[in-house]
Amino acid sequence: MSDKTFVLTVVTPERRVFQETVNMVIVHTVDGEMGVLPGHIPLIAPLAIGPMRIKTGDDEHKAAINGGFIEVTAEQVIILSESAEMAEEIDVVRAEAARQRALARLGKKQADIDYARAQSALQRAIVRLKVAGREG
Question: How many distinct structural domains can be found in the chain?
Fold first, then answer.
């Protein structure tokens, strides 16, 4: 590892989604977009549902992150999330079906609809579709 790289680890309760030496990671925190380069100050921040971009040399990887936390230390960056998927892992048909279900729930005018949950499901589906290269 050089002074131009750091180890990025993305972990969910089920598995380690990603672990490599990278040059930069860009995530969406609850306060907005944040980029981390080598030498970044240590911090812990809550993550929003959103895309993550990982830069390694001339390559860029994308992932869909379902909230969680980012921890930045001098040696590494750890992302803990309830769920995370790399772009190549996303099932586009399933994500589109989830988007349609959430839109249908939000379209109902019933008192028993949990709108916050439906909004969150819609946001997750849209992010997954964007990360997979299919606009939602």
Answer: 2
